[in-house]
Amino acid sequence: MPWTRTMRLIALALMMLALLGLAPPAHADVATGQDAATRCALVKPTDDDTISILGRICDRRQRPPLAVPGVTVSVEDADGNQIGEATSAEDGTFVIDLPGTAIEHLGKSYTVTLDESTLPEDTKPEISSRTLTINIDNDQTVLFPIGDAGPVKPGKFTEAMQLMVGGLVFSVVLAMAALGLSMIFGTTGLTNFSHGELVTFGALVAFFIDRLPGRIEIGGAEITVIVGVIAAFVVGGVFGWLNDAALWRPLRSRGTGLVAMMIVSIGLSLFLRNIYQYFAGAQSRNYSQYGAVAPWQIGDILLTPKELVVILLGLAVLVMTTSLLQFTRLGKATRAVSDNPGLASATGINVERVIRIVWVGGAALAGLAGALLGVTQGFDFQIGFRILLLTFAAVVLGGLGTIWGAIVGAFVIGLFTELSTLFVDPEFKFVGALLLLIVILLIRPQGLLGRAQRIG
User: What is the DSSP string of 79-137?
Assistant: First the structure.
């Protein structure tokens, strides 16, 4: 069929995009006449249980930027007490470990200051002090550009455009998780509180593929994490099938009520979260590749290759999934089961088979979302649980039972959470998104794309 041929071409193009966009070059950079040791290097993330301030000092007046060694950098807490100090190395990088455990620093702010007296002559920093708020237990990165004096802080428009990049990345990942949740809810009526653990499962699958001995290469380019992301999608679907076969299908066969099944999903969530913590540990994890990727500068906006690939890959997956639901026989059967399972069964549709396929597809989307979250921001055993409420918010905001509703709701939530940090502290950005959900539902209870229905 022409449609099947088109979908195959889209899948092939999607695979080539992932290989070209995420795979690092097979050969080293071409020499530019400058000593490679003096170039400004990327900071290598640490692999321990502490939070570290990672940074680099670069002279942007040179192309490529040159490292500025021997510069003193200090870290102070909110009371002005110095808690750490370091000197930039030959490659311009520095690492300052925050004392104590990671959890002690969550929610606190620290000021990283560059000692201008230690800079070489005739150099001037564009900014000499940065304040960081620790919101997650990952290492924090700062950059001190040296060169011609620039604005201390970018304008609101530039800042908003930069935040939109992060918002788009988060939105496409959230949309995949929300679409999977919406599909399962639509066909089974189950409010699955363990859906976040399906997201975490995908991140863990990619992580364990990444930690296997050796490297996976094609043409000299390492693609270990790319294979991990693909494995997260495939194994995530298998895990969804196991969930349905071992737990949900037997409960449906016994006529278990939806409220009881919802409570079972809460228990399953707690059980899986503890299993993940036992095998993966409680610390934050990062994949071996793409932890510190040099960004492209488009005007005043910074965009990394991995962010672009995640956006395009996520959009392609969403378009393919919604097209399958909209135009194929399986998609029509899925919508029929969602609208009226009894009538769908009477017309010859195998309802249990449709539900089983939806579980596989929904869990595969959640697994892919978890792996891409790990690529863009790292992860821990609670990453799915932390975005579960936002996933529910996206589904409800867009309209329960609609194909496009979950996607639209995810983009509204994702972009709003990032752009709201222009006016509120970052730790309150999720609160603003939930307030937006409440306001819209007060005005339009059926959601943005839902249909109003008469009850009773």
Answer: TS-EEEEEE--TTSEEEEEPSS-GGGGTT-EEEEEE-GGGSPTT--BS-SEEEEE--SS
Q: How far apart are CA 336 and CA 159, in angstroms?
A: 45
Of residues 176, 175, 181, the one with CA closest to residue 359: 181
For residue range 236-274, what is the model confidence (pLDDT) as tens digits? 999 999 999 999 999 999 999 999 999 999 999 999 999
Phi, psi of 443, deg, nearest 5: -85, -40
Contact 420, 429 (CB under 8 A): yes
Q: Over the stretch 191-220, which tens digit does the pLDDT of each residue have?
A: 999 999 999 999 999 999 998 888 888 888
Helix (H/G/I), strand (E/B), else coil: 66: strand
- Where the chain has pLDDT below 50, the residues are 1-37, 149-152, 454-456
Of 73, 111, 110, the closest CA to residue 92 belongs to: 73
> In order of start, what are the domains of the chain with their CATH numbers?
50-153 (2.60.40.10), 158-443 (1.10.3470)
Q: Tell the residue number behind the tokens 């690939």, with chain if given.
A: 309
Query: Which two tokens mark 23?
Result: 């795979």
Give the C-alpha separation, 105 to 86, whole Å. Answer: 19
Dihedral angle over CA of 259, 260, 263, 267, nearest 10? -160
Q: How much is the pTM?
A: 0.68
